Amino acid sequence: MANGRNGYLLMGGIASVGAGAVHFMAAGMHTEHATLARLMVVLAAVQCATGLAVLLSERKLVVTSMLAVNAFAAAMWVFTRFADVPWIAGLTAESPQVADTVCAALGALAAVAGGIGLLRPTATVPPMRSGIAAAAVGVLALAAMLNGVGHVHSHGDTGDHAHAAGEEHAHGEDHGTDPAWPRPWDPTEPIDLSGVSGVNADQQARATDLVRRTLDGLPAFADVNSVGALGFRSIGDSATGYEHYINMGYIRDSNFLDPAHPESLVYRVDGTDRTLVSAMYIANGKKIDDPSLVDFGGSLMQWHVHDNLCWKAGDNGPVVAGVLDAQGNCPPNSINPGSGNPMVHVWIAPHQCGPFAALEGHGAGQASADGRRTDTCGHGDHSGGHR
Fold it and tell me: Is the pLDDT of residue 159 over 60?
């Protein structure tokens, strides 16, 4: 090149290095999925290597390698916005975030620039413009990495831990559960579900991914005044300190453990204020011992049913009227339909009993034939009526 470097290849090489840098950062955010993290490191290394190679050489083989790896990376990003990759734990469909979107955009830019550079090998760019382009890509990649780090450490409600210590009453019996579980949960800290006996790597990976996806997706429902338009209706249990909103359409659909379609939302009650603290996922048409439930997260997650709740008709749908009394009777004008579809909580707010903790009380629900729960960790009475 007599008058300078090929401008397209210069841009492509810089973009590839930027995409690789963001991927290196992302790998560190997915260490709970060892295989996925390793694959991301390899992809990042190849993107950086091929990008640097193109900056040093404009040989066709070098450029083609950069184009191929970045086209693959961008295509995988598009695919995983809509579908899971089942043979790689943690590589599941999720909504676009700033960091991964920038990473994919840089990869796509590298691929397109490489392709144009191959078709127009004589296209040059002045040194000043190449410097501006390099700086722009560098700033974009740095901003994406900073946003990614901030995103991981910004989930949840950290302002009030009182409910975890005082309002969530738990069974005091010794049920022989692992002393490592449950343990206090703080969504501002890295997700750590490790060290629980009997939980295999796949179960840990699935449970961790569910927590991560819930932290990412559930805040879309934070405004309790807007969820009615989506089909959510209160079951009228705000007197317990927590209010459940259920969505019958989501209960009947085929989505499973999907933060974009949570069957029930749990809000902490403070006068007229409502703070979203948990999703309550409901498995429609399944039994509590269904392998797809039991094996999903193993003993990390506690699926349960409510077989002692009494319901009555409300203005906007069924509402809780109370619980069965000692004689097995409901309050007047209400019925007990028996145990229904299994459900499990995932908390986006701090909780002393972990991210899958139960809402405790007399109406807490049963997790097995003998009523034992493994998602409780404190001592106290059960007069609160929480679920």
Answer: no
CA-nearest of 72, 88, 63 to 20 is: 72
Domains of the chain, by residue range, sit at 7-152, 162-347
Q: Say how far residue 339 (Cα) sits from the centre of its chain.
A: 28
Segment 267-307, tens digit of pLDDT: 999 999 999 999 999 898 888 888 889 899 998 988 887 66
- Measured CA to CA, the distance from residue 147 to residue 324 in angstroms comes to 50
Q: How far apart are CA 54 and CA 51, in angstroms?
A: 5
How far is it, in rounded angstroms, from Cα 160 to Cα 351?
Answer: 10
Can you tell me which residue has the tokens 């009228």? 236
Separation of alpha carbons 66 and 83, rounded Å? 26
SS3 134: helix
Nearest CA among 364, 384, 362 for reference residue 373 = 364
Do residues 148 and 26 lie in contact, with contact meaning Cβ atoms separated by under 8 Å?
yes
Per-residue model confidence (pLDDT) at position 381: 33
* Bigger pLDDT: 335 vs 46: 46
Among candidates 156, 161, 158, which has minimal Cα distance to 353? 161
Query: CA–CA separation, 258 vs 103, rounded Å?
Result: 25
CB atoms within 10 A of CB 370: 7
Radius of gyration of the chain (CA): 26
